[in-house]
Amino acid sequence: MAGALYTSNDDSRSFEKEKLLPPIHDACDAEQKFFPSKIKSTRYQLSIMGFFGIFLIYAMRTNISIALVDMVKSDDSGSENDVNQNCPAGSSQNSTKSDDETFAWSTSQQANVMGAFYYGYLITQIPAGYVASKIGGKHLFGFGILATGILTMLTPPMSYLGVRWLIGLRFLEGMTEAVTYPAFHHMIGRWAPTLELSIMATLAASGGPCGNLLIQPMVGYLCSVDLLHGWPLGFYVIGALVIIWYVLWLNFAYNNPDEHPRISEDERNYIKLHSQIDQKQRAIPWKKILTAVPFWGLLVAHVSVNFVTYGMMSCMPQYLSNVLNFDIKANGFLSALPWLCCFVASLLSSNLTDFLRSRRYVTTTFIRKMNQLICTIIPGLFLVLAGYAGCNSTAAVTYIAIGMFFFGFHYSAFNCNDLDLAPQFAGVIFSITNTVATIPGFVAPLVVEFVTRDNVHSEELWRHAFYVFAGVGWTGGLTFMLLGSGKLQPWAQPSSSLITETSH
Fold first, then answer.
1. CB proximity list for 448: less than 8 A, separation 6 or greater
2. Contact 189/424 with Cβ under 8 angstroms?
3. Is the pLDDT of residue 320 over 80?
4. With the C-alpha atoms ordered 173, 167, 169, 217, is the resulting torsion angle positive or negative?
5. 471 vs 64, 213, 345, CA distance in Å?
6. What is d(CA 24, CA 138) in angstroms, rounded to the nearest whole number?
7. 411: helix, coil or strand?
8. Are residues 81 and 107 in contact, defined by beta-carbon separation less than 8 angstroms?
9. Structure confidence at residue 445 (pLDDT)
10. Cβ contacts of 206 within 8 Å, gap of 6 or more
């Protein structure tokens, strides 16, 4: 297996070239230090602003999964399937809200509400990658978050108009939010020195698990507040935070180092010296991208990880509520615990990854594949174990949390692999893979709904769902091991000069 990790898509000569790379000679001694000393630099301000932007992206994407538990009318018909009879009921498990405060939506309608976002998300990503390559990512990223924030604040009135109105709104939110990731990857490709790709990209992307970590318990708490029936508050609060962030983004973010008015010359020169980017525009090599074997390894890995991510985001609250009988407030905090583990692991793994790369202990290809295996094989095993935890809520949440810790390694695996393969075209490549990887966003909830439709409170049926998540994850990890690469592709080489560390 170790040999496969190193040599897929790389012949022995290319491996030796990758293995013998010289260390980077930095513009100043401070650049040799790791994350704590770099956080004050201008380039890391972009990652920090990206962190808060992606935090809000995930907040707007996932708040509905917690709110739905409180929005939808519980069935009090007395059927034995109303709750999981095998597990003790949590306090305040049944909603005390009146019928005019809740909605009589079926499980299929709820799955459509959560899935509609991803249908819209499919449409605008590839156009966004193209537009970002022409005009830069700053205003595209900012617009995507601002527009989605405004639509998010319309969620309560659309819900009262009817489920079809809410589904349509979620579809529009998906369209506006879809432009954000291609735009930001385009920007990171122009700001990140080669051996800081993992840290800079992961610092920003870790806003995702952090959004799940903080927003889910916050929405769970707001659902228990009497003001405005509780659940609408989460949508209004998140929308207000988006507006504040957007004002800051306009003042602190720039498309590239040359546009930034406050960056030091030392840092500007350092980024240019260790960049793999042509500052001039280049035609997008669509055919070469789509026929590159590492691209297909990246695509499969992206789809498999997103299937697990979206499944956990959408279905974890339902699992805790329907199987373990948690009330809405406990549901929010326990849903968020695995994302705390994922957030911590994402930061640890990114620093470790770039440390090992910069010291030439491993090649980029090796560490990307190793991280991808870690983030798929181990979480899959723990998800399966969670399915066998029965009513032992402590064991179930612990297994899921441990699995999600190792799942956090994906931020230093496929998630920044487009920046390895072709930083010049990272936004375009990410837009393609993320478009396909959006399909699990509406498929995963439907799969869970199909698997558990006979009894949504059944431990055995949820166990089957966890097997599906694990199987998809394992497939992606093994495929990336066989097809993936961390090498800069020949068609993405800077035309002006071939920088020494680009082969790494």
1. 111, 311, 314, 315, 318, 465
2. yes
3. no
4. negative
5. 27, 25, 22
6. 29
7. helix
8. no
9. 77
10. 51, 54, 343, 346, 347, 350, 411
Q: Are the C-beta atoms of residues 105 and 163 closer than 8 Å to each other?
A: yes
For residue 498, what pLDDT is reported?
41
For 41, the enclosing helix (H) or strand (E) is none
Query: String of b and e for 254-280 (b: at least 16 CB within 10 Å)?
Result: bbbbeebeebeeebbebbbebbbbeee
Do residues 57 and 177 touch, judged by C-beta distance below 8 A? yes
Which contacts of 389-396 are long-range, i.e. CB under 8 A and separated by 24 or more positions? 390/86, 390/87, 390/459, 391/84, 391/86, 391/87, 391/88, 391/324, 391/459, 393/87, 393/324, 393/326, 393/334, 396/324
Q: What would the DSSP string read from start to end of 98-164?
A: -GGGSB---HHHHHHHHHHHHHHHTTSHHHHHHHHHHH-SHHHHHHHHHHHHHHHHTHHHHHHH-HH
Write out pLDDT tens, residues 57-72: 988 887 887 787 777 7
* CA 240 from centre of chain: 22
CA neighbor of 366 nearest in space, from 271, 236, 480: 480
Q: What's the pTM value of the predicted model, to 2 decimals?
A: 0.77
Separation of alpha carbons 379 and 110, rounded Å: 27
In tens, the pLDDT along 143-180 reads 999 999 999 999 989 988 888 999 999 999 999 999 99
The helix or strand, by DSSP H or E, that contains position 426, with its residue range, turns out to be helix 426-436
DSSP for 291-356 reads H-HHHHHHHHHHHHHHHHHHHHHHHHHHHHHHTS---HHHHHHHHHHHHHHHHHHHHHHHHHHHHH
Write the burial class of residue 429 (CB in 10 Å: 0-12 exposed, 13-18 middle, 19+ buried): buried
Q: How far apart are CA 143 and CA 104, in angstroms?
A: 34
Enter the tokens of residue 224.
């228990």
Phi, psi of 151 (to 5 degrees): -65, -35
